[in-house]
Amino acid sequence: MLKSKQNKETLNQIGEREILNRLKTFMDDGQIDDDTSIINTNRKNLIINTDVFVEKVHFSEETTFPENIGWKAIAANVSDLISSGSENIIGITIGLITPPDTEWSWVNDVYIGMQKALEKFGGKLLGGDCSQGKQKVLAITAVGSLGPLRLHRSNAQAGDLLVTSGPHGLSRLGLALLQSEEIPNKNELTENLKKQSINAHQTPSPPIDALKHLINCKPAKIPWRAAGTDSSDGFLDSLANISSSSNCSVIIDPNQMPKAKDWPKGQTWDKWCLNGGEDFEMIVSLPPSWAQEWIKLVPSAQIIGKITKGPPKLLWKNGEEIRIKNYSNFTHF
Amino acid sequence: MLKSKQNKETLNQIGEREILNRLKTFMDDGQIDDDTSIINTNRKNLIINTDVFVEKVHFSEETTFPENIGWKAIAANVSDLISSGSENIIGITIGLITPPDTEWSWVNDVYIGMQKALEKFGGKLLGGDCSQGKQKVLAITAVGSLGPLRLHRSNAQAGDLLVTSGPHGLSRLGLALLQSEEIPNKNELTENLKKQSINAHQTPSPPIDALKHLINCKPAKIPWRAAGTDSSDGFLDSLANISSSSNCSVIIDPNQMPKAKDWPKGQTWDKWCLNGGEDFEMIVSLPPSWAQEWIKLVPSAQIIGKITKGPPKLLWKNGEEIRIKNYSNFTHF
Known about the structure:
The structure is a homodimer.
Chain A: H1 11-14, H2 16-24, E1 37-39, E2 46-54, H3 66-82, E3 88-98, H4 104-121, E4 124-132, E5 137-145, E6 161-164, H5 170-178, H6 191-202, H7 208-216, E7 227-230, H8 235-246, E8 249-252, H9 267-275, E9 282-286, H10 288-297, E10 302-308, E11 313-316
Parallel strand pairs in A: 3-4, 8-11
Antiparallel strand pairs in A: 2-5, 3-5, 6-9, 6-10, 7-9, 8-10
């Protein structure tokens, strides 16, 4: 257990009113006096997203500090907003459920992690609710404003290139290192790759600058049409979602897998790259001329395949179908 | 158990993707293809609220049909928006957590209840997320637009009258009837009061028209300043919140308790009225001239006391302090 040892006070000792009072210190103004919070709007459309994070389903206290649980919950929601076209995060609300014998320090550390993430990505804590329950749950709703580009999973078209904002598999490797799993070729791993992987697992940073570049580099003659999603549930999974929502085939070049620098070779490594999960990179389907401009501006971005007419399927370049089930896969049911 | 007997299919048999597909039918457009939803804004400020509803803490399947669980979750959030000044509900997102052996029909019925409530109160289902977990949880975030009156708990001032939009205790009586509890004076209960109470417990209706009247009847010379909250956690509890947030004393006239027509006399009945909980009425603190206009327009509204200078306390008219703990009280920790 990585849990902080200080402050052993438990929530049932503190009581609901005092818990809310303490949480108030994490907020900019007195929203906890009221049940609601204001969102200032200035004619822009807003974009909203809700994600739930359940103990033992989405996070484990064995491998994740409470502060990192808070950070990751924010990062996952911000990732959804970014990959929908929101470059300006307004704020989040949180529904927090914890067993009554949870220590206050756990809640405090989760909120510190959320606060740090919001400092990095923008946006503020707007409010929320808390209750006791059998297991820990964070339900996060994030609100951002939408710029000129609304990315939908269903917007891909034959002829598009598929581009990702960065490498995949790092978070899965970070988890393996933190859990002291058996790792093939472990001795070959560079210090830099290990550090990068643990960071990717503990404090992932969704690619907000990559979205800004994507918006700024659109060739003038092309309309604001691109498909996008994030790869939070795995690289192949996000491609499968674009393929089915857009009703088209996706072709991936095995020589263009989105691997990090110094990523080892081998079956486990390919699996972790293709569907390790929690990578929080953008996967975008867009016209070739736009794609070429984007990868010039985002050093970590990479073309990984293309869209063709055909049934919703993932195919290797040689025409062989990719079976996602052959790769490790996330499911929440 | 009141649970529906049809469709015994469980969620782990159905799988995550198919669950999301089925939930899509409850939405106006294809937001489930994406992780986010658009909120159209037109220069107004928005107001946002998150509430969590946890099985065995906030609801029990023994006394509540799944459809009513969905309705009540929406009503509770709408109540928070109304009592903050939002007369226009834009929509909600839902984070749904259920054990894997939950029957699909349960989820379906909860969504039908939410849909019916949204048809009544306005707003649409914007999106959400689902996951497995040890117990059922609904985490609802509601968004509304704000009119000219922002009600804060902290806005009460000495000289204000306290007014509620309607009677209290009905939901608690409804629960007692549904649970076949021992009820004193049970034979005296009118059929109308029983029916009204069961409705108040199963399908509560937050007073959206009362808010509209409150906004429309403000005397022109008075500024847009009033304190407000809803009585979802009990009548006395909401008064205590106004008292502490506004740092003033609250004086209640025992002859002006907000009782329903034909409400019986006796200690249990006073307790249920004063802190039965889940009443979802507005409690507003406002200047006397405004209060007088409001009660003319809202037949169920009633003056219940006043605000005076003094420490945050609830007092009877004779100066005796009201101890909330002497009345049944909600707590979620």
